[in-house]
Amino acid sequence: MTRGFCVTRLSVSSLVCCITLQKCPVDIQADRGRERGLSAPQMENHTYNEHVLLLEGLNVTPQSSYPAFIILLVIYIFTMVANISLAVVICMERSLHQPMYILLCNMSFNDALSITTFIPRVLSDIFKASAARYITYVECAIQAFCGHMFATTGHTILMIMAFDRYMAICNPLRYASIMNNKMLVKLCVFAWGVAFLFVAVLIGLSVRLSRCRSYVFNPFCDNASLFKLSCESVFINDIYGLFFTALLFIASIVSVSLTYIRITMVCVQSKSKSLNSKALNTCFTHLAVYVIMLMTGFIIVFLHRYPQWSNHRKVASIIFPLVAPCLNPIIYGLQSKEIYKVVKNMFQSKIMSLRL
């Protein structure tokens, strides 16, 4: 590939690479394409098309394709059915129209949307050849935006749920007046609105960059996949990404930690067994869900910082986002006596109606 060809094909930022005797992005793309067994026409097609990207997808052997597809499909169906069922039960049962369960309904809705962002796409690409896993840049950006937004919303909802538990246990007399319908609507709008604004800036900083690559080295699109398509400086993206991640984790860890420290102090000072039992039951479920989400998020962020562990990161990026949405309805359904009673009564009434 000659210098002249590079000049005619690339932008000014890529021309600098050629002038400074560095390997051109085109050469890099060609090398990567050859490593993956792509023919020259295939490399030509996906290297220079600005609007179509080639997605790596889930790399499994032909023998493992069917087991991987079945496992992911079963997990996806179970997670969707469990979360949607939980949300429907809360919406239909008036006795569950309380702040804690309304927030849980938001969480279930968010979890269902979260896995729908990437699992159907991964499933559809499993049986495709590596050179046929195309995705448009717009679809990639939308997928990245939705993935980050729903992950962020999960954290903000859990922070609000911690505040709700604090008010219910530490200020029971003021709970009804503070956590009224108006406040609940504001908190829900805050949870979704803050996530939308922060992620919009995150993805906007990546979309603004010019592109000199078209191969996404990931099973699905995320923010890192977007800015890695550019040959420009991504310093601002790194700074904002670190700020955003640190702010999200620090805010959630500090707020949840302070909340549970205060709840623990109240329970220790209180001699009421009913209060301690209620606190243990409701707080355990929330804390279990929070720890699961926090740990999976930490591991993915940690693996992103070490390129030599890219294969581990790719596997983790598929498995870990499924863990919390899959376990949340199970944890809340088994631990929440109110939800368990409602579901039990629904099944009993259904069985009685069938017998009649």
UniProtKB/TrEMBL annotation:
GO cellular component: plasma membrane
The keyword Aminoacyl-tRNA synthetase is assigned to this record: no
GO function terms (MF aspect): G protein-coupled receptor activity; odorant binding; olfactory receptor activity
Membrane topology classification: Multi-pass membrane protein
Keyword terms: Cell membrane, Disulfide bond, G-protein coupled receptor, Glycoprotein, Membrane, Olfaction, Receptor, Sensory transduction, Signal, Transducer, Transmembrane, Transmembrane helix
Extent of the signal sequence: 1-18
SMART domains according to UniProt: 7TM_GPCR_Srsx
Residues passing through the membrane, by range: 66-89, 142-163, 184-207, 239-261, 282-303, 315-334
InterPro entries for the chain: GPCR1_Superfamily_Member, GPCR_Rhodpsn, GPCR_Rhodpsn_7TM, Olfact_rcpt
Domain G-protein coupled receptors family 1 profile: from-to ranges: 82-332
Main location: membrane
Compartment(s): Cell membrane
Protein name: G-protein coupled receptors family 1 profile domain-containing protein
Species assigned in the record: Oncorhynchus kisutch
